[in-house]
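Pipeline run #58 for the internal structure catalog. This entry was flagged by the ingest filter as a single-chain record with no existing model, so it goes straight to prediction. Upstream metadata was stripped on purpose; only the residue string is passed forward. Reviewer on rotation: M.T. Logging verbosity set to normal.
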Amino acid sequence: MTVPDTTAATEIAIRISGLKHQQGPYPVFTGLDLAVPAGSVFALIGPGGSGKSTLLRMIAGRTTPDAGTVEVADGTDEVAAALDGPSASNLSVTAWLCSADRADRRAPADTRDARVARALELTGLAEVSLRRVAELNRGRLRRLRLAAAVVRPRAVLLLDDPFDGLDADGRARLTALVRGLTADAVTVVLATHDDTGLDGLATHAALLRDGRVTDAGTLEELSLTAPSRVRVRTPDLALAHGVLAGLGVSDVRSAGGEIVCDPGGATVDRICRALALAGVRIMGLARL
């Protein structure tokens, strides 16, 4: 399918073209294209196994695709990725964060203490800065991973399922941190399995399914604007018919492996999620 280009007149921070990748016998990406506007908070939304985490690792330069290109305008040295770790450690939170910063060859040593202190404050870890990393619960380990990613300011920040395991305070701090970064023109890309918590935070999103982007645009376009007609390409026509009927869509017509319908106020995001949760194999989904 053709994904609408909403970035024609916008500076692009990350451009992905024709991405193909396979893990063992299983295809992860089958020709993925995506453009992330500079300064945006871009959400990658998709079910488990849709390749969100793999895509983040490719943007960070940690995984090489089988084919296609991933271009970061400022280079991968300017990508901060809260993707891995921290593993169990007997170091204190502060010592671990200093060690992680020391491993960054571009991190200036003379400002390390001040930057580490600020990262701990931003992520709500200052009060446990002397505690051993091995003693932290899951939510605080996620905060420490985030702190390591923001201790040195960079042009792009990648977050993998950032709200998972966070309490209300952690979510509030993460939202405030992301807003502060985008105010400084940082581009933030986050992967999530649904759109919970994205309102007021994300500016753009892409829906991932079966190795491709099925829809992309501003959050308003995806979540707040219902299209006049929607076309779904799927081999599961009968199952898709039942799901669409449950959403209250009308004028459903199918032929040649495609369904065209009047969504009746349902957004593309809602339709895509409902079909995916029901196990419908989506080969393409587009507004008409």
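catalog note: The first strand starts at residue 12 and ends at 23.
catalog note: The chain has eight helices and 13 strands.
status: ready for reviewer M.T.
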